[in-house]
Fold this sequence. Notes:
Elements: H1 8-16, H2 43-52, E1 78-80, E2 86-90, E3 93-97, E4 128-132, H3 143-149, E5 153-159, H4 163-168, E6 176-179, E7 184-187, E8 190-195, E9 215-220, E10 223-227, H5 236-244, E11 247-253, H6 268-277, E12 280-286, H7 300-309, E13 315-316
Parallel strand pairs: 3-4, 4-5, 5-6, 10-11, 11-12, 12-13
Antiparallel strand pairs: 1-2, 2-3, 7-8, 8-9, 9-10
Amino acid sequence: MFGGKPDNTSQTKITQSTHxxxxxxxxxxxxxxxxxxxxxxxxxxxxxxxxxxVEGKNPSAPVPxxxxxxxxxxxxxxxxxxxxxxxxxxxxxxxxxxxxxxRASPLPIGGAPFELQAPITTEQLPPIDVVLISxxxxxxxxxxxxxxxxxxxxxxxxxxxxxxxxQHWGINSNKITELDWYESKTINxxxxxxxxxxxFSGRGLTDRMKTLWGSWIVNAPALKVYFSGDGGYxxxxxxxxSTYGPFDLAIMENGAYDQNWAxxxxxxxxTIKASEELKASNLLPxxxxxxxxxxxxxxxxxxxxxxxxxxxxxxxxxxxxxxxxTLNEKTNQTWWAD
Length: 338
């Protein structure tokens, strides 16, 4: 569950990274994981709300979704599976981001996905060419999903240190590439670039920031995508947009935000700003709609984002979970309104 320790090859790459200080990895922008102040709710009040819930924290009915039914995507098609899991087909490759289908927590309480109208499981997935992992938190690196998908995945591309987790779970080393920020791997003429994000990592009590975290640039001949992973707002979005943009699609974190961790997760208005700086034509908001990971109403992220998007030229893409879509069709239906 927790993962493994880097082998000698991985450890050498880690220690040689300019982002590793000898003990931990560091963000490019000075970052506090906790931004609590004297005016913040007490720890007990916060935990009480998180554990016992606030009104509307969870949906009152199964979330709309569509079963895969053995679907095989054509180039240009995509599917959102809730949270940060997106399957896309481009240049003959099927690529999936942060495949999480089970619990988003190692604890026996909390972390269960919301009930879906049509449950989606790893068994329904088509063969996968590339899995992109942004970091090793439980809501982005799902041990059971990785094990389930192992035989049907050709290659995993991960940030430094995460290779050890996959090896520990039985994935052949030859199927794993681990990268530092701004390193890349090309498969079938599609270039996968690991870019920085403003976040942190760790699966246990003593391994915080021992592995790297990041975002992903998928640069294919007919499709250019940015996947944010997790992270707070920073000037790096503008740099990425200037260097690698414009993007056809930005898959952006939009949920599980809180003033208590304001530097490691974006608020919806910041998600819009970051998408603009990335020079993205379309924005697919993720990191919401599947798990209860913060103290806001479960619909607050998409409602706030939709309001902010009215003043932006970035086009929102909001498909139903499990339903294939393309960027050429109208996919900004407000399915959550009911």
